[in-house]
Amino acid sequence: MDRSLNKLVSLLLIIFSLPVLSQNSTGGSVPANVSHNPEDYKDPKQFDKFRKRKDVVAAWQVNELKQGALVVRLKTNKTLLDELNKQGKTVLALEKQKEQHAINMNTIAAYKDKFTFCKVYFIFSNSSDSLLNGARSGIFVDSTLKVDPSITMNEKFYLLAERDYGYNSSIGFVPEDSARKVIEVGNPVKEMAIVVKNKYGHQLKGPFPYFVKEKNFMDATYDVPINVEKDANGNVTLNYTPDKTYLADIKERNKGTRVPVRTTGNSKAKIKKQYTYEKIAEVVDQLNDNFHQFYQGNVKPDLTRIDQEIKQFLY
Description:
Largest sheet: 5 strands, mixed
Low-confidence stretches: 3-41
Number of helices: 8
Strand content: 15-25%
Radius of gyration: 23 Å
Shape: globular
């Protein structure tokens, strides 16, 4: 066998040893065969007719969302806080509590200021099961992070939004009758500023604009003023007002401009730059623009004219 034929045989062996690729939700390619990691297994049935389904499902979702609601999930860090207090690390627990409180307050303020595509509601992440099981009041928080029983979500269709990792998704399109049993696993690609999911917690598929990327701020942190009050029983009440010009004022002070330093509050919360109001507002504004643009380019599918099998994925 001559040298050129040897090269050809070697090349063919390499090609046929590569995994079969299928289109993933972010437009890239992912292995569709069984990998060595059982958590990365992709059910072939869920990726059947994927290209045909994704456009119809995404167009239906954005039109439903326009008349529906976006529910923003806020973290509580309850497990971490309970463990720190259990270990007697009360000072560290309070620092983490202040940090999460400021982040959540900035998040709510940013959505209220920048998100106009549809109605928006806020819940703590530990209320997700109640929402999925049909609760439409008694779980939503107001702009002060207090659960307000008067807030009722009347919209039938909703999607979830939260800061989370984007996944090289292990699941394709799942029929609603089995969606509760399916868990999103796979390889986390990168922490995103916002990830949009369906009511079962599965990240959506492209072409729906289901994420906004996080920028790299090199772990820059800032101290923001926050008021801490403790009652006789040791219960803590936190009061924090989002500062909408915090980073801008720091920039001006660095230029030598006389800008007053914020001193309201008897304590401080240390937060990363991406958690300031201004940076959260930027990504929420981007999400809002993405939704509007995608909505403008996609009319609602006529359910009488689409394949009947696609209807099981419209939820």
